[in-house]
Each structure stands twice: as structure tokens, then as C-alpha cells.
Design goal:
A: about 350 residues; mainly alpha; two-stranded antiparallel sheet; 13 helices; B: about 450 residues; two-stranded antiparallel ribbon; Cytochrome ubiquinol oxidase subunit I (chain B); transmembrane helix (chain B)
Chain lengths: ~350, ~450
């Protein structure tokens, strides 16, 4: 099999898509979280500041979803088709939420009426919450595995997706994003809204730690295949410990009011949790919980070596560019939010 | 055709038709914005700055809906067309991923600066952001049309596996990108987009001129957009005939459907208007005998293979539909050429802005390129049936196996409801922005002072 720097091409793409999904979780994670917190801000002025804190960057953040999904389509088309068609209705709901979220941000400032603002505030908050929950729901089901027969055909029912473990993961993702979003907003705001956010950051981080503990316990007890790799390579247990330390560091940063540090910690937490998930999964992309032959491995799902190699070159050229735009954007709009004529 | 197939096709057609209103507008408007802001930097005339700011606000509205509805398209390949996704992932997927990395990232990142960066970056950096957003949208269209063109005229691939496990594998990446129809179809789509955007500017400006509001701004914008529109309309004649030649060579069934040509092999007529009776295999209407043969072979007697020379199961079924959409597209193209040339002539005679009936025509003309783009797209896509990948994969075989008809029906109803609501809101907010007009910060004296050298350059 073709390798680049000693790693085979499907594994490269497994890593790259993992990185793209982590990038998406970190970037869109904070603006989704800010959206989910939106209705906690009572004053019109506060809501506008919160919205404008993500205003110039949320579109760029969403690009990571588009690139991640496009890469999954290109590199592992079998998995792309399988996951999306199996989770048909959840993804349709996800798309509706994406549409509503985008237009809520865009439309809110276009009219002066109070009811108009309230309508789009609710739509923005609900859609952000629903997107976070659905991402978690799909993730939770992928961790447990889904019923695929030996031909990779789905033999389950829609309502099976709403199981307690998946719901727990959904809530955990939402709590992570809300905490992450609160810390982002703390970096962008001052005065009253800042004071309010310190309380929100405190509460959401406590809530997240509860969810984190519950998820860890549930995974250890009910999803043993995710932890099997630690038995084979005990040194990897260090990653699990790192995750715990980083999570504790979020609390420590919040108590010391070092929100930038807290934000970096919650970013790292997002990435680490996804790395732990990827390690439990590899070399599979989708696990079957009824027949091991039904699981889809990266080698089965991969596109041709030629295509993977060309796209790897594209990624090597394109991703540094995307990273540069992202940094340039955040640098241009650095500092606390000031409302002006172009604001939402 | 079972229900899942029918519903999935309706859903895809509906969502793409709706999406296809917005990206062409952003592309054309993006180019107009680059010209407006470029003129501002060159002349320092405040009118151009105010114009740019005004049109950037409209651009943002259009772009926002374009992105929201575009993400739907990307996911629908996987949700509704899983077998198709597996079959073409190697090819279509890589073009889609390239679009994300090289185009969409560029436009989305710099859109933030375009909208919110007025006081954060220097005018030159802002202008650069405008150019990058416009380029991003142009590249976006490139990759999407390349992916679609591969479906129309596949090349640079081999087929691996058989039956439902078969899939297309890239053997030559650049042959895949520059497949036989990419260049012709891309230039045709891109010019269609320039027409859509420039006619929006023409329409709004003409309305201001009729209402005697923002006259200086409106006339300046009208001149810019008229040039873009006129050059595009003439260019479309060229790319259109090139596209017809490609269809002749690679998609004979589509060509035959476009002109309702049934005979196995005979010179093809060109209809100006007509009606196809597919059952009796008869096409009636006003025609130029041998016109089609002349268009594509430059010889009125050159035989064209008709629908009867193609196996019945490989023929497009909606022949009259393809015929009508194709002819509507051509008529609109001709109308746009006439309209823009007349506009330029009157501009040269310094009578354009006083010709009120023509200004009224321009107000409504915004619909023409939109209809033209839509029907052109239908001609291309319906004419390709029953294939989703021409000659390789049938639409009926491309579906998701795991999806049930009632789920597709539910999502279709949901999209219809949301898109109708979205369209009403879009029109409402667009109208509101137009009513509001550009914010005039400059006083009357400066706004009436157009740069003299420039006004002589573009006449009147």
C-alpha cells in the first residue's frame, strides 16, 4: 500500500479529517455555545454585543464543517453515504437548524421592532442548541456503534438513536460548547455583560465537569470497546489523564479569572476528547454493534490511492492558507467588541 | 420510478433551483463591487464609496442565504444519494473538497472584513478583501461546475468493481478536471452569473432614476453595470454556441431533445419557438431548416442523430420540457443582447437616462437572467436523464438504500415551507434596503462632482 512518510494514505486522511472535525469543534464550538447562551442575556445591548462578538468570524468557522464534510465525501465516500443516509432525519433537522441560525444572525438587525429581535433571538438560540445536541447525538451513536449487517446495510430503527448514552453525549457536547462560548465572550466583552458572563462561565464549567464525569463512567462501563486500546497500549492512558488535568485546568483558570487560558484549555479538551474517540475507533470509521463484519474500516471505505494522494497535496497547500485566513480574521477583529454602524 | 426516487429528485431539483438564485447574484455583484471600490480608490470620489457600502449590504444578504442553502446541497449527496456518493466519491468528492479548501474558505474569511472591516483595516486592505471575496466566489463556481461537468462528460477515470459495488476511480486528475465540457460549461455559467449580478444593479439603479432618487449614485452604478452586462451578453453568445458543440459531440440524446429532433439521422432544424409531441414524435413550430446542423457543424446538410437512433431506455423522457427550457434560455439571451446594446447606444447619444420606458424595462429586466440561468440549468440536467453520470450510472440506481419515502416526503415538505418563507423574507429585506438607498455622507456639491476624466471615459 502507498505510504507518505511511513503512514498509509487512508490513515493520513483519518488523521486529517480528525483534525478538521477538531478544528470545527473548537471554532464553531464557541459560536454555537455563544448562541446557546444567547437568551441568558436580557438586555438588547448585551445581546447585540454577544452577537457582534461572533459576527465577523462565525461564517469562517462554519467553513471547517464544509471542508470536513467534503473531505469525508472525497476520502471515504462509503462512510459519507452510510452515515448521512442512516441518520437521515437527524441530519435534515441539522440542516434546518444551520439555515435558521445563519439567517437569524443576518436578519435580526434588519428591523427595529422589538418582536422582530425577540423572534430571531429565540431562533438563534434554539438552532444553536439543536445543532450542538444533534452533533452530540450522532457522536454518541457512533461511539456505541450502529446496527449494520455484514453488507454495511442499516437494520435498525430511528428511535434507537435516542438511547440514554447518546443523549448523555449530546448534553455533554452542549455543556462543553456553552462553557467554551462563555469564555470566548468573556474575552470579547466588558462591564455588565462581562460580569454576567463570569457567573455563566462558572456555572457552565461546573455543569460540564459533571457531564464529563458521567460520560467517562458510562463509557468505561457500557462501551468497553472504546477503552480496549488502553489495555493493549497502557502508555496511552496518559492521554486520558491529560484530559482530566486539562478539564481541571479549565476550572482553575475560571477561578483565577484567566479566561484566555480557560478558552485554550477548553479548545484542547475538545481536541483531546475527539482524539480519544478516534483512537477507540481506528482503524474503523463506523462500528457495527451487531456484526463485526458490518463495521466499515478506513481501508474498505477509502477512495483510490491516486485520489487520496492528489488531495493530500491539495490539503498540504490549502490548509496552511485556510489557517492563515483564520488567524488574519481573528487578528483583525481582536480586542473587545465596540458597537458601530456596521454592527448587527 | 418508485417514490423514494421521485421524491428525492424533486427535493434535489427544488433545493438546487432555490440555491441557484443566490450564488450567481453574489458572483456578478462581487465583480461590480470590485469595479465600484476600485473606482473609489482611483478617483477618491465619495459617490463610489457610498455605492460600494450600499451594495456590500445587499451582497451580505444574498451571500448569507447562498451559504445556508449551499450547505444543504453538500449534505444531500450523502443523505439522499448514498450510492451515487460511493460511486463518484473519488471524483466528485475531491472537487467538492477542493472547493471548500480553495474557494469557500477564502470568500467566507474575507467576507467578515468586507462587512465589518471598514474601520479596522486600511482602504487598500479592504479593497483586497473585496477582490478576494469575488475571486473566492468565482473559484467556488469553478469547482462545482467541474464536478458537474464530469457527470455530463466523464473522463480521466476507470470503473472498478461491478453492479452495485462499482465505482469510478480517478486515473488522470487533470483529465478529470478538464473533461471535455468543463471549460465551455464553466464559462457559460460564469457569464450567466455576471448577467444575474449586473442586471440586479441595473434594475435597482433604473428604479432610482425613474423615482429621481440618488440620481448621481444610480447613474454611476448603471454605467458600470451596463458595461458588465453588455460584454457578458455578447460573450454568452460565444460560450453558448461552444456549449452546443460540446453537447453535439458528447451528449447526442440531450442535443436531440433540445431541438425535438426524432429522425434517426437527418439534418437538424433550429426552432425559434415550437412544441414537441413526444408520443407522435412530432415537433411543430417556427423553424430554420438545417439551422441546428449549421450551428453545430457549420453545414446545413450535416446529419444529426435523432432520438430514434438512441435506445429507448437511454432517452430523456421529458423531451418537450428540455425543448422549452432550452428555447426560453436562447430567447432570453437574445433579448439581453438587444437590451444592453440599445442601452449602450443611448448612453453614447446621451439620452439613456431620459428614456423612461427603457428605464422601466430595465427595472423588470432583473428577472431575465434569473430565468435564463434556471432554465439553462434544467436543460443541462433534465437533458442528461436517465443518467446521473452520463452513460455510466442511472439516476434510479444512485439512491440511498437506507432512506424511506416518508422520510424524504417529510424533509421535502419542510424544505418547501422553509424556502418559501426564506424567499418572502429575502424579498422583503431586499426591498427595504433598496427603499433605504445608499447613505449619502458627502454633501450635494461633492456628490455632483464626478471625476471629469472618468466621466468622459465612460461617456455621458
Amino acid at each position: 500500500m502507498d505510504t507518505v512518510l511511513g503512514i498509509d494514505l487512508p490513515t493520513w486522511w483519518f488523521l486529517l479529517i480528525g483534525a478538521l472535525i477538531s478544528g470545527y469543534g473548537i471554532l464553531d464550538g464557541f459560536d454555537l455555545g455563544a448562541g446557546a447562551l444567547h437568551l441568558f442575556f436580557r438586555k438588547e445591548q448585551s445581546r447585540r454585543i454577544a452577537l457582534n462578538a461572533i459576527g465577523p468570524v462565525w461564517d469562517g468557522n462554519e467553513v471547517w464543517l464544509v471542508i470536513g464534510a467534503g473531505s469525508l465525501f472525497a476520502a471515504f465516500p462509503l462512510v459519507y453515504g452510510t452515515i448521512l443516509s442512516v441518520f437521515y432525519l437527524p441530519f435534515m433537522l441539522f440542516l434546518v437548524a444551520i439555515i435558521f441560525r445563519g439567517i437569524s444572525i443576518e436578519f435580526r438587525s434588519k428591523e427595529k421592532m422589538k418582536w422582530w429581535h425577540q423572534l430571531w433571538d429565540i431562533s438563534y438560540c434554539v438552532s444553536s442548541t439543536v445543532i450542538s445536541l444533534l452533533l452530540g447525538l450522532v457522536l454518541g451513536n457512533l461511539i456505541q456503534g450502529i446496527p449494520l449487517n455484514a453488507n454495511h446495510e442499516f437494520v435498525g430503527r430511528l428511535r434507537d438513536f435516542f438511547n440514554p448514552y447518546a443523549i448523555l453525549i449530546a448534553v455533554t457536547v452542549l455543556s462543553l460548547f456553552m462553557m467554551h462560548g462563555a469564555m470566548y465572550l468573556l474575552m470579547k466583552t466588558e462591564d455588565r455583560l462581562y460580569a454576567k458572563l463570569t457567573i455563566i462561565a462558572n456555572n457552565t464549567s461546573k455543569f460540564f465537569i459533571l457531564c464529563f464525569m458521567a460520560t467517562s463512567m458510562a463509557t468505561l462501563i457500557y462501551v468497553p470497546h472504546m477503552t480496549a486500546i488502553f489495555k493493549a497500549y497502557p502508555e496511552l492512558f496518559a492521554l486520558g489523564i491529560a484530559a482530566v488535568l486539562i478539564v481541571l485546568n479549565i476550572r482553575r483558570s475560571i477561578e483565577k479569572r484567566q479566561y484566555r487560558r480557560g478558552f485554550i484549555s477548553s479548545s484542547v479538551t475538545t481536541a483531546l476528547l475527539l482524539i480519544l474517540f478516534a483512537m477507540g475507533l481506528y482503524p474503523n470509521l463506523v462500528l457495527s454493534n451487531i456484526d463485526p463484519k458490518g463495521s466499515i474500516s478506513i481501508y474498505e471505505a477509502a477512495s483510490s490511492d491516486g485520489s487520496l494522494r492528489t488531495m493530500l497535496l491539495f490539503a498540504a497547500i490549502g490548509m496552511p492558507l485556510v489557517a492563515t485566513y483564520t488567524v488574519f480574521m481573528f487578528w483583525t477583529f481582536r480586542g473587545k467588541v465596540k458597537l458601530e454602524e456596521h454592527s448587527y | 420510478m418508485d417514490n423514494v426516487e421521485l421524491l428525492s429528485r424533486i427535493q434535489f431539483a427544488f433545493t438546487i433551483a432555490f440555491h441557484y438564485i443566490y450564488p450567481p447574484l453574489s458572483i456578478g455583484l462581487g465583480v461590480c463591487l470590485v469595479i465600484m471600490e476600485g473606482l473609489y480608490l482611483k478617483t477618491k470620489d465619495k459617490v463610489y464609496e457610498e455605492l460600494t457600502r450600499f451594495w456590500v449590504r445587499i451582497f451580505a444578504l444574498i451571500f448569507g442565504i447562498g451559504v445556508a442553502t449551499g450547505i444543504v446541497m453538500e449534505f444531500e449527496f450523502g443523505t439522499n444519494w448514498a450510492t451515487y456518493s460511493r460511486y463518484v466519491g473519488d471524483i466528485f468528492g475531491s472537487a467538492l473538497a477542493a472547493e471548500g479548501i480553495f474557494a469557500f474558505a477564502l470568500e467566507s474569511a474575507f467576507l467578515g472584513i468586507l462587512l465589518f472591516g471598514w474601520n479596522k483595516v486600511s482602504p487598500r486592505v479592504h479593497f483586497m478583501a473585496t477582490i478576494l471575496v469575488a475571486l473566492g466566489s468565482i473559484f467556488s463556481a469553478l469547482w462545482i461546475v467541474v464536478a458537474n461537468s464530469w457527470q455530463q462528460t466523464p473522463s480521466g477515470y476507470r470503473i472498478e468493481g461491478t453492479g452495485m459495488q462499482a465505482r469510478a476511480i480517478v486515473t488522470d486528475f487533470w483529465a478529470m478536471v478538464f473533461n471535455p465540457s468543463s471549460v465551455e460549461r464553466y464559462s457559460h455559467v460564469l457569464i450567466g452569473a455576471l448577467l444575474a449580478g449586473s442586471f440586479l444593479v441595473l434594475s435597482v439603479s433604473a428604479w432610482y432614476i425613474l423615482k429621481k432618487k440618488y440620481l448621481v449614485h444610480a447613474e454611476a452604478a448603471f454605467r458600470i453595470a451596463l458595461w458588465v452586462a453588455a460584454i457578458s451578453a455578447l460573450g454568452q453568445l460565444f460560450t453558448g454556441s461552444k456549449s452546443a458543440e460540446v453537447v453535439t459531440k458528447y451528449q447526442p440524446a440531450k442535443l436531440a431533445a433540445m431541438e425535438g429532433h426524432f429522425e434517426k439521422s437527418a439534418p437538424g432544424d433550429m426552432y425559434l419557438i415550437g412544441w414537441v409531441n413526444a408520443k407522435e414524435q412530432k415537433t411543430t413550430g417556427l423553424k430554420i431548416p438545417g439551422g441546428l446542423s449549421f450551428l453545430v457543424h457549420h453545414d446545413v446538410n450535416a446529419p444529426i442523430p435523432g432520438l430514434n437512433s438512441i435506445k429507448p431506455e437511454n432517452r430523456p423522457t421529458a423531451v418537450n420540457f428540455v425543448f422549452q427550457t432550452y428555447h426560453l434560455m436562447i430567447s432570453i439571451g437574445m433579448l439581453l443582447i438587444g437590451l444592453t446594446l440599445l442601452g449602450l447606444y443611448l448612453l453614447y447619444r446621451k439620452k439613456l437616462f431620459q428614456t423612461r420606458w427603457l428605464m422601466s424595462v430595465f427595472v423588470f429586466s432583473v428577472l431575465l437572467p434569473q430565468i435564463g440561468n434556471q432554465v439553462g440549468w434544467y436543460t443541462a440536467e433534465v437533458g442528461r436523464q436517465p443518467w446521473v453520470v452520463y452513460g455510466l450510472l442511472r439516476t434510479s440506481d444512485a439512491l440511498s438504500q437506507a432512506v424511506k419515502a416518508e422520510h424524504v416526503l417529510a424533509s421535502l415538505i419542510m424544505f418547501t415551507f422553509i424556502y418559501v418563507m426564506l424567499f418572502v423574507l429575502f424579498l422583503y429585506l431586499l426591498n427595504k434596503k433598496i427603499q433605504h438607498g445608499p447613505d449619502v455622507i458627502s454633501d450635494d456639491e461633492t456628490s455632483s462632482r464626478m471625476n471629469p476624466s472618468l466621466s468622459s471615459l465612460i461617456s455621458e
